[in-house]
């Protein structure tokens, strides 16, 4: 994400950004809220043309509109964020319009900014300068390729060894198919982790070294006990992605969730659920507050006296840290199952 303008007075004002990836659109879903004023270039027919009994054929004009947000939808599979609401600035003020925000579209957001939203902007901007990561989890006869995104690991391809024809042994045909899939998706700015049980991953790396030495030079090998989603998760827990992307958001969430579940199993320094977390905060015991993005979004939409944001400020005033989990990814889904909110504590309460 590129930030092209930042004009803030205190916590209010305008930030203009250009989303560059699907991850950036996902970030904007949790930054833009009901009541925000959002400007973007869009196409629209004038309402006056629709009022005619026999309207002439009119083309849509490209105009810049300011929309007061009423709702928004993140369409992951069409790479689009849809923002709907009444027009406050521009043609046909008072009428409703939907902004379709895609990669490369300038979007200006005017609002009262919350601390975690500013942090999301900063994180997305910093992440655009870091390399992306692709995980190839491979075992004998089976392989999965996953793309590491901010919201989780997106499954890109599953490859099975077949008995079909091809040059070389069945194993070489299998490795060649994985390599071709990998070459199609990898770019110069991306790193590759090859993982899996046994020696198949090492043999695959040797195959890549023999056929694509430049690609092989940037590959990291990691041991895991399985492939697929659980294999991707193991790679994150073992820190391979962390070593590549430094403080990767999802690697950090996977590690924190491991710590949370271990403390729960030991009946240790942990609480989960709204009432228990509030009680811990009353004692100043919260070291790290864990909240799912969907829980945070829902609480803010309720808008009951700024309750959730007041609570977060109170935790931070007591030197607690906030981590917002993505529910697109397994740790966030586990947190959501625990009520959407939990905390690692300084001491047991």
The total beta strand count reads: 17
Morphology call:
flat
CATH class of the largest domain: Mainly Beta
Series of H and E elements: EEHEHEEEEEHEEEHEHHEHHHEHEHHEHE
Question: Which sheet architecture does the biggest sheet show?
Answer: 8 strands, antiparallel
CATH homologous superfamily label of the largest domain: Pelota, domain A
Total individual domains = 3
Figure out the total of helices.
Answer: 13
Helix-residue proportion: 25-40%
Query: If you compute it from the alpha carbons, what radius of gyration comes out, rounded to the nearest whole angstrom?
Result: 24 Å
Task: Calculate the mean pLDDT score and round it.
Answer: 87
Q: Name the CATH architecture of the largest domain.
A: Roll
Distance between the termini: 41 Å
Could you please say which CATH topology of the largest domain applies here?
A: SH3 type barrels
Task: Point out poorly predicted stretches.
Answer: none
Strand content: 25-35%
Structural class: alpha+beta
Subcellular location: Cytoplasm
EC number: 3.1.-.-
Organism: Methanohalophilus euhalobius
Keywords: Cell cycle, Cell division, Cytoplasm, Endonuclease, Hydrolase, Metal-binding, Nuclease
């Amino acid at each position: 994400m590129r930030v092209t303008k930042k004009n803030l007075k205190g916590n209010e004002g305008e930030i203009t950004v250009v989303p560059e990836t699907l991850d950036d659109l996902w970030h904007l879903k949790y930054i833009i809220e009901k009541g925000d004023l959002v400007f973007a270039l869009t196409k629209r027919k004038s309402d006056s043309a629709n009022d005619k009994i026999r309207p002439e054929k009119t083309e849509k004009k490209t105009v810049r509109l300011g929309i007061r947000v009423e709702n928004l939808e993140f369409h992951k599979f069409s790479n689009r964020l849809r923002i709907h609401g009444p027009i406050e600035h521009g043609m046909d003020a008072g009428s409703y319009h939907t902004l379709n925000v895609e990669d490369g579209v300038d979007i200006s957001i005017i609002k009262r900014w919350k601390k975690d939203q500013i942090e999301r902007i900063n994180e997305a901007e910093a992440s655009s300068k870091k390399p992306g990561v692709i995980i190839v989890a491979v075992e004998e006869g089976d392989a999965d390729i996953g793309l590491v995104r901010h919201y989780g690991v997106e499954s890109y391809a599953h490859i099975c060894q077949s008995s079909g024809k091809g040059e070389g042994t069945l194993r070489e045909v299998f490795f060649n198919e994985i390599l071709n899939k990998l070459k199609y998706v990898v770019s110069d700015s991306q790193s590759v982790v090859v993982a899996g049980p046994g020696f198949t991953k090492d043999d695959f790396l040797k195959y890549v070294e023999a056929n694509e030495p430049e690609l092989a030079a940037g590959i990291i090998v990691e041991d895991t006990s399985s492939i697929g989603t659980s294999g991707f998760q193991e790679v994150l827990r073992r820190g391979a992605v962390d070593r590549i992307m430094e403080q990767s958001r999802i690697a950090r969430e996977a590690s924190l969730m491991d710590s949370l579940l271990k403390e729960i199993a030991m009946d240790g320094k942990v609480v989960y659920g709204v009432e228990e977390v509030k009680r811990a905060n009353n004692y100043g015991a919260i070291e790290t507050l864990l909240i799912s993005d969907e829980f945070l979004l829902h609480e803010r939409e309720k808008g009951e006296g700024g309750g959730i944001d007041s609570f977060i400020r109170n935790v931070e005033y007591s030197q607690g840290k906030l981590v917002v989990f993505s529910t697109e990814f397994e740790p966030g889904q586990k947190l959501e199952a625990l009520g959407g909110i939990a905390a690692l504590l300084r001491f047991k309460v």
